[in-house]
Amino acid sequence: xxxxxxxxxxxxxxxxxxxxxxxxxxxxxxxxxxxxxxxxxxxxxxxxxxxxxxxxxxxxxxxxxxxxxxxxxxxxxxxxxxxxxxxxxxxxxxxxxxxxxxxxxxxxxxxxxxxxxxxxxxxxxxxxxxxxxxxxxxxxxxxxxxxxxxxxxxxxxxxxxxxxxxxxxxxxxxxxxxxxxxxxxxxxxxxxxxxxxxxxxxxxxxxxxxxxxxxxxxxxxxxxxxxxxxxxxxxxxxxxxxxxxxxxxxxxxxxxxxxxxxxxxxxxxxxxxxxxxxxxxxxxxxxxxxxxxxxxxxxxxxxxxxxxxxxxxxxxxxxxxxxxxxxxxxxxxxxxxxxxxxxxxxxxxxxxxxxxxxxxxxxxxxxxxxxxxxxxxxxxxxxxxxxxxxxxxxxxxxxxxxxxxxxxxxxxxxxxxxxxxxxxxxxxxxxxxxxxxxxxxxxxxxxxxxxxxxxxxxxxxxxxxxxxxxxxxxxxxxxxxxxxxxxxxxxxxxxxxxxxxxxxxxxxxxxxxxxxxxxxxxxxxxxxxxxxxxxxxxxxxxxxxxxxxxxxxxxxxxxxxxxxxxxxxxxxxxxx
Length: 576
Hints:
- The chain contains 13 helices and 25 strands.
- It has helices at residues 3-35, 153-162, 178-182, 194-197, 209-217, 237-245, 293-302, 380-393, 440-450, 465-469, 481-484, 496-504, 522-534, and strands at 42-45, 66-71, 81-87, 93-95, 128-135, 150-151, 170-175, 206-207, 222-225, 250-253, 267-271, 280-282, 284-289, 306-308, 334-341, 346-354, 360-362, 412-419, 437-438, 458-462, 493-494, 509-512, 538-541, 554-559, 568-575.
């Protein structure tokens, strides 16, 4: 073939390949641009700190928040734990319909079916959705003392005209930056709620009843505000509550840092401990900014594909550590009535409980002492256990990482559910109290079937223990008391070898549907917690129904942001 002909043929070949490439690739490029930029997702904390020197419960007659570090690492215990006296109006909080809507059978004004929608009855999908941030900063301090500037429905309508119509699956967030400016340690913290109530400072911006009616008509069922309450002062608090909650809304009060969110596109979520018959709850608000994760979570919420994995907190359920024998229990879960609400026909209640009650976070400082701790302060038996542990696993670490220092990104990620039901019944009755041990070999077998663990995964052990044994008393003794006292087999639990194996895979959070990750044998349990803490890992304990999760669901656990707490009460949910 002549050289000129060969050259022309090559040119046509190159041009044809370019055309084919454009036909195949250009649509994908256009589609990607249409979806917007893909950024690395970030989890943004939107919650206030809970501490005794910070504004806590409603100051007009509500019990004070109390924190008692009553169990300390030393000669009497190898663990740290705390007693919390906590009202549902502490810090960043969740309001649900019974806060203002009475039970339908009460025959009280405003009673309705949503009066049964307590914190333990709210469907998990309603806790989250797409954040739609309505800018109200111009209203901050724009009213006389003791009065709230009002967010009118016209502001929401203007937002829709500029952005898009609101509807189901949206979370409308009113941003005024009130908490950012005024949530401070006392005495400056009096400006947060007390001074507006005393008519000595302007109150927080808030929507009025007509605004709530408008949003209810748009079928928006989840709201939030960075004001101290969703109730405008001086006289529209209850009308605004009733106007919104009658639709079955839930909302966040006292969020913070809303300025870190885009106007739309972020995923927002607010979850808190699952108090039985709770009118409101302390909680943790956060957002996921950046696709594809934010988009995925928003879609799951809109399709109601969200599972609640938390046990209910109730005085008749086995939610607190009973200990073995007599006198080794921790603070029981208590519900304490304090003010009769005539409009609801019931009492407002606070709660007293151990920080490791129900579904909770185990931070490193739970079992690791602070730097400088003298191991001679352990009980003699524990000193022997430590000697054995360090000979095999290396030096036990120290830590000051309490609950508020654990980033939410560490307790959220792809769920890797390891089925360990085959271990149930594998111990010899003569060895009780004993738990079947989840070994590193069990984990390797899982990886061979389901793929290797990767950094960021949340490894969850599914034994079915809580599903089967979490019952009211007296049957509930089979959950913890009977196994601890050698009357039945304990729940499967990982040994320190399994923890070390997972740490080598980059895993930083391990969870279980057993009451604890440590199991019932005190020596093996302590070694497991030492290994977790020393590797910088955290645990989430006392889950339920994890065996129902589809493969690669996205797991979320968010504890209440309590300063210096050695356990973190909260709620676990999963998106699929």
